[in-house]
Every structure is written in structure tokens, then in C-alpha cells.
Amino acid sequence: MSGSSSRMGRSLLLLAPLFLFLMGFFVWPLFSMMSQAVSDPAVLRLLPRTAEIMGDWDRESPPSMPMQTALMEDLKAVDDDQALGDMVRRLNSARSGFRTLMSKTTSALGDAASPPPDLVSIDKRWEKPEFWIAIADALSPLTDRNLLAAVDLGRNSAGAIEHLPADQSVNRVILVRTFWIAALVTFFCACIGFPYAIIAASLTGWKRDLMLAAVLLPLWTSLLVRTAAWFILLQEQGLINDFLRAIGLIDAPLALIFNRTGVIIAMTHVLLPFMVLPIYSVLITIPKNLMPAAASLGAPPIRAFLRVLLPLSLRGVASGGLLVFISAIGYYITPALIGGPGDQMISSIIAFYATGSANWGMAGALGMVLLVATLLLYSVYARLSSDEPGRR
Amino acid sequence: MKTIVKSGILAAAAVALSASLVLPAAARDLTVVSWGGNYQDAQRNIYFKPFSEKIGKPVLDEAWDGGIGVIQSKVKAGAPNWDAVQVEAEELALGCADGLYEKIDWDKMGGKDKFLDSAVNDCGVGAIVWSTAIAYDGDKLAEGPKSWADFWNVEKFPGKRSLRKGPKYTLEFALLADGVSKDELYDVLSTEEGVERAFKKLDELKPNIVWWESGAQPIQFLASGEVAMTSAYNGRITGINRSEGKNFKVVFPGSIYAVDSWVVLKDAENKDVAQDFIAFASLPENQAKLPESVAYGLPNKEAAAMVPADLAKDLPTDPANLPEAIALNVDFWIDNAESLTQRFNAWLAQ
Question: Do residues B130 and B296 lie in contact, with contact meaning Cβ atoms separated by under 8 Å?
Fold first, then answer.
């Protein structure tokens, strides 16, 4: 008993670093990102009096005097600038204009010499129900607003879910585009990577080393450098266009950059190693005499490939495809530098909310949508690639 | 059971030990953050290195690309790893309202009256006055564009255009091209019809626009001939002319200028030294050296007066360049940046 528990203790000890690492760098960030997307305490925390009074408001009539007084009292009681900032950011995100409105209001309330009688006397905008609706909508500690907005939905004033107007709807288009680009890149990586891996695995000695080095070397080069290199190659006055013109193949330069073509070319190159290496590692475990055996039994090369080599190496193709696809979904720099406006992927939208506007709720919600979509695809993959006999 | 407890303690000790190995115990040196490129190279020579010699300690410098979210995440995490940061006007306004910066000790800076009004703020000291303007290659276009209407005119000036990807500046420029006068610009943009009108004008040019995101890109596009004209930061244009002998021109009429400021992050480890650094970088004799390398205007009035005339003519603050230029409306953008960016992205994706 004591022997087994000490062994267990030792194995726990060995696992502790991994466990703590996973908790600290994986589970916790993921959890806090997801909770950012749905938790919405910034306004409620600072405006308890307003929240109480606004429960009776009909969302249409101009703000009543008690509402204004309650909000003024709440605002006067705030002594934490950062909490105030969180609240204002949340409100401005729902209704543009709160930034300047709030800074004007708080500085007027801070003026002890001549206290304003009500909010409307500070700024006319306080008369408009829109601003009060924004406050009323932000008074619940949990919200589905970000998650809905991440898929271009919103609640109308009656609380029903509906589509956002077309000039605010961009996320769905970009999400679909992200998956489509990732799928194309995976397809092209497979088209190039599979034959490449077959050739590399069939060679020996320095030739094989050379082919593997050709895949590995770019992997050790910074992503930014590789993307910049593609920029130089693909641009209108770039090496490729100059060469094609010099040999007389084309008259006008091909449009290779700032469009989908350029993005696919550059991303396929950048992600190719993730396709080649898994396929290669599967291929070298396949006995070399299987193909000659198939030939000796009368199978023509294509048939031998389809019936013997392809099924055996499909695992490598599937895991390579998954690696490429999942990496491609998160791409940001390459579409930004090589792509046109129609090629931006969802990461650039997430980056805008995370760093540009500090709206972490939206960033979290978009991240969550991406994560769920990826997990769904992964479960499809896991079903398809599972080789338990019962499933087939 | 006992052994489990024991190994648990051991594990905790191991984690504590490895944590102490990872986290540096030594005090961090003053860390100054600016916008990179040839601008930061100039700052390193005239501010960072001399200040480091003065205090006898190293000064670290890093570059960033802006974004209030970056500052917010650093301050909210506690003990930010940056001290003095150069921020744009909206980041100054947002961060100051949200309590992300230390208050400036204006006595240390020599008093508020030494600076341009737009460079004085509770949380920040103006570092430069900079413009976003039309730039083109004078060697390729002898008769260049004079206004944003020319920029939109692809028949008279064939070739691609480049603009910063985002609604800020782009919407203003579109309205100017559509004939809105500079005095009415933000009044028009504040209305729904004004925003519609700007996007409609952008529709005309959309097929010819290549979008840029970092300040070095438009220079590269011009140099490679990828675009015929672009919007660009004026200092970088003059910088490349001097360092690589280019003949790029800046069109100041219709340009939009703004003030970048130094701020000190809230509760930064070196917040006092950071204020000393800002005071050092604001001294007229130090600031006056900046236009030799990059053509940005100087917020310290004495420094501005010390700039030789041949350099002063390239600055956004020069009396010849200022009258036709427009001041960025910071209040408009802190209110509307998020909703207009969303709309801009939707327009781009169409």
C-alpha cells in the first residue's frame, strides 16, 4: 500500500509542472477569455442606484428626474478612474458618443462651486432615450451581446434577436472567408506536400537530407521575413513579373499581390512543412517492398498507388491537413501584408478589438466562435480518421 | 498518504524555485517606447543615449504600433514593463480618462506656457506635431497632385493609390475630395449623411486603392512604383529623401496634423525617472535637434524657434504649411472609432 502510494506520489510530482503549466497557460487564459465574452459587470458595479430606478422605465419616454438624480449620485460616488473607464468603454461601444458625454458630465459634476441641477443642463444628449437605453441594456451581469454580435446578430429594442444592419455585418462573411482560405491552403499544401514527401521518403543519403533541409530551413526563418520575401517576389515590379516579361511570356504584369492568389501562394509556402513532415514520418514506416509486391502481382503503378500507398499514408495526410488547416485559421500577418481588402481573415478583426479598441468582450466572443467552429471541424475529422473497426 | 503530502510540498518547492529562476529579481532599467523606424533612430541619438549618459544608467527602448488595448493590458496586469511611452492623441485622451497614466509634473517640464496649447495635458507632454499628407514621387510625376480631389482623379493621374487601412483619416480625405471645406469637415462627418457621403466617395476609388497598415509601407510602395501616390506620415517622407536621395514630395494643403505625446504608465517601476526623461526630451536645446533627422514639428516653442529656416520649411508647423492643414478632431474619434471601424470593415469586405 505504502509502496504504491509513494509511486503515485512520485508520478504526481513528475506531472506537477505539466499540470501547472497547462492550468496557468492554457486552461486559465481560455476560461478568462470566454468569461470576458459573456460577463458584463462594468456598468452595474458603478451604477447601483440607477439600476434600481431604471427597472421601472418604459424605454421610450424622456428620462425622469429621479433617473437623472440617481445617475448623478452614482457618478459622484465613483472614485476609481479605471472602473469608470471600463464603464464608459462598454457604453460607448453600444452607443457612440458616450466618451465625450461622460467626460463632460463627470467634470461638470466635479465642479463644487456651481453644481448642475440635472444632467440635461450639462449636455442635451441626456434627453435622448438612446443613451439611457444603452445604460439599461448594460445593467445585467451576464450578456449575450458580444456572442450575438460576433455572428452579426443583435437584439432590437423589444429584445428579440435579429440581424444587424448590413453596414455593421462583417463577421460572418469574414469567418466563412477564413475557413475557405484555410481549406484552399490545406488543399494546395496536400497537392504539393504529398508528392514531395513520397519523393523524399524514396530517396536515401544526401538527396533525402537535402530535400528535408529544403523544408526545414524555411521553418526556422521568421514568418515575417518569409512574408516580406514573398512581397518582393510577387509585386508588380517584382522578380516573378520581371522574369515573365523578360522571357516574353506576358506583356502586362500579372496581378499576384494584394489579392487572393498572393495570399494562397504565400500561406501555402509558409505552411508546407507542416504538411510534408507528418506525411514523411508515416511514409518511412511503410515497408519498401510493398509497391514492388503490388507490381509483381500485376497492379499498374496508379492502381498500386491507390490501393496500397495511399491508404497506408492517409493518416499522415490527415494529420498534416489538420495541422495546416488549424494554423491557417489563425493567420494574420500574411493576409495583412500580401492580401487585399477582400482577403482579411478573422484574426485581424480580433486584433482590432483586442489592441485597437480594448473591447475584450468582443475579442473574446469572436475567439470563442472560432474555437467552437474549429472544435466542430476537429470532431468531424476525429470521426473520419478513427480506425476503430466498429466505426467503419 | 504522508508521502503524497511530502511530494506535494516538494512539487510546490520545485515550482517556486523554477518561478524564481524565471522572474528577474533585479530592478528594470528605464524603458522608453516609441514608434520605431528612422524616427526612433533619431530619438535614440538625441534623447535616449544622452539621457542614459546623464543618469549613468542604461535606457532601454522598444517600439510599438499603437492601440489603447496594449496600454490597458499592461497597466491592468499591474507593474507594467514600460515606463515612458509616446502615444497618439486618442490614446492620450482615452488613457487619461481611464486612469492608465501618471499625472505629469509640469514644474519639472518647465511650465505649461513653454509649450503649444495642444501639447499640454494633465497626463501627457507633446513630443511632436506630425501630419498625414499626400506623398508622391517627384521624379515620376513632374506635375503632382495639389489636393485630395486630384488624388481621386485617376484619369489625370493614372496609377494606384494607397491609404491607411481604417476609417480615421480615410473618411476625412474622402469628404475633402468630395468638396467639403476644411472648416465644415467634422460637422459633416458627425452626421449620418456625411458618413454615407464619405463611403460613397470611397466607392469611386476603391478598385484603385492598396491599403497600408504600418508607416513604412507607403514609402515602400512609392519607391517600388506600386502606387502613383499615397497618404503617408510627413516625417518619413522627408527622412527617406535625406537618407536615400529620393525626391518624394509632401502636399501639405488638406493634410491632417495631430500631436503625439509622452506619457508615463500608471504605477510604472521607474515613473519618477520617466518624468525626468520627458523633461530632458522636452528641453529646447535637445528637441531642436530632431528636425535634422525627421521633419516633425516641435511642441516646445523655444525649440521651434531654434530650427534653421531650410529645415523648418518641411515641418507641419511651418507658417507656410499650417494654414491649409486640418487639426485632427480627437473627440470625434474617441466617440466614433469603434462603430466606424466596424462599418469600415464591413465596407471593405463588400
Answer: yes
State how far residue A291 is from chain B, nearest Cα, in angstroms.
Answer: 49
- Per the document, the length of chain B is 350
Which domains, and CATH codes, for chain B? 30-129+259-312 (3.40.190.10), 131-256+326-349 (3.40.190.10)
* H helices present in A167-309, as ranges: 171-202, 205-219, 223-234, 239-246, 260-283, 290-296, 301-304
> Across the interface, do B346 and A359 touch by the CB < 8 Å criterion?
no
> In angstroms, how far is CA A244 from the centroid of its own chain?
37
Mean pLDDT confidence for A345-356: 90
Q: Could you give the ipTM of this predicted complex?
A: 0.81
Please judge whether A357 and B11 are an interchain contact, meaning their C-beta atoms are less than 8 angstroms apart: no
Q: What is the mean pLDDT of chain A?
A: 89
Range 101-140 of A in CB contact (< 8 A) with B: 102-103
| CA A123 – CA A126 distance, rounded (Å) | 6
Residues of A in contact with B337 (CB under 8 A): 356-357
Chain B: give the shortest CA distance to residue A356, in Å: 4
Chain B residue numbers touching A166 (CB-CB < 8 A):
346
A16/B14 touch (CB, cutoff 8 Å), yes or no: yes
Residue B125 DSSP class: E
B224 close to B162: Cβ distance less than 8 angstroms? no
A44: left (phi over 0), alpha (psi -120 to 50) or beta: alpha
Residue in chain A nearest B330 by alpha carbon: A100
- Inform me whether the C-beta atom of residue A23 falls under 8 Å from chain B C-beta atoms: no
3-state secondary structure B281-320: HHCHHHHCCHHHCCCCECCEHHHHHHCCHHHHCCCCCCCC
With cut-offs at 50, 70 and 90, classify the pLDDT of residue B11: very low
- Looking at CA atoms only, how far is residue B342 from chain A in angstroms? 6
Residues 45-84 of A with CB under 8 A from B: 80-82, 84
Task: Label residue B2 by pLDDT band (50, 70, 90).
Answer: very low
Query: Three-state DSSP class for B327?
Result: strand
Which positions 208-237 of A are in contact with B (Cβ < 8 Å)? 235-237
pLDDT digits (tens, 9 = 90+) for A166-213: 888 889 999 999 999 999 999 999 999 999 999 999 898 999 999 999
pTM over the 0.90 mark? no
pLDDT, average across residues A140-148: 90
Report pLDDT digits (tens) over B321-349.
998 999 999 999 999 998 999 899 889 88
